[in-house]
Amino acid sequence: MRLDGRRESSNVDDRRRSTTKKAGGIGIGGLIVIGLITWAMGGNPLSVLKNVSLSDVIQNSTSTGYEPSAEEEELATFSKQILAGTEDVWSAQFKQLGLQYQPPKLVLFHSQVQSACGGASAATGPFYCSGDQSVYIDLSFFQQMRAQFGADGDFAYAYVIAHEVGHHVQNQLGILGQANQKMSRLSEADANQISVRLELQADFFAGFWAHHDNKQFNSLESGDIEEGLAIAAKIGDDYLQKRAQGYAVPETFNHGTSDQRARWLRKGIQSGNFDDGDTFSQSYAEL
């Protein structure tokens, strides 16, 4: 991506040098692989903690003295630039809708973090918390993407951030709250279908952002779109379940198949039309 000279968002809370830490318990390294799959598959991005006592992961808040590497600092700058791009695009789009966009905060953390949605570790992966309207990310996740999925490239990373910002857009528009209320009244299988609709719309919104960011800044380079589509295909529920257990169970899908995720991301990139991102009006089979 072409980002030289692009502004960095100041709407960032960098907590990397002061994190929660606990001696003993379950190691973060041991949770990373599980967490990657959980991030891609779970309706609740904090679900990796369901079977792990919070006291096993987080106990006392301490200053770790952690110093980010030069590579991580480059990723931090990149993430701030991508966040700024989402601010520009969504502010303009909301204005067209007669609304005012309130950007999310980007929280950078190392190892563990506390959010309004609860405690989380690096193994949870990037997530959006509607409770404090913030996107959380441990930048080591991008290294894990490369190591575990063979997914690399700046647009692949940008897609991850833009997807989480997409959930914030849903929250701002009331879509997320309405969907969560409906999911609470449904069976798990039916709730999963609502979750798939939310996730595919967030994929579309990521593509929508890329379309308009490129239109405004000429940011996309040759191969960028392919990078995004490649990682979208590798975080489909069917792909991950087959990789983890050798078979897929469609009724448990809550993010969408590889084909669906790549298709809705591509649709957002190609269309750039907000109305084309309605994943709730059509039948589930047509998604």
Principal-axis shape: globular
Cα-to-Cα separation, first versus last residue: 29 Å
How much helix is in the residues?
Answer: 40-55%
Please compute the radius of gyration using only Cα atoms: 18 Å
Strand order of the largest sheet: 1-4-8-7
β-sheet strand percentage? 5-15%
Order of helices and strands: EEHHEHEEEEEHHHHHHH
Output the number of helix runs.
10
Mean pLDDT: 86
Count of strand segments:
8
Low-confidence stretches: 21-35, 40-62
The biggest sheet, with number of strands, parallel, antiparallel or mixed sense and barrel status, is: 4 strands, mixed
Number of domains: 1
Structural class: alpha/beta
Task: Please provide a brief summary of the model.
With 287 residues, this protein is an alpha/beta fold. The protein contains 10 helices and 8 strands. A 4-stranded mixed β-sheet has the order 1-4-8-7, with helices on one face. Strands 2-3 form a two-stranded antiparallel sheet. Strands 5-6 form a two-stranded antiparallel ribbon.
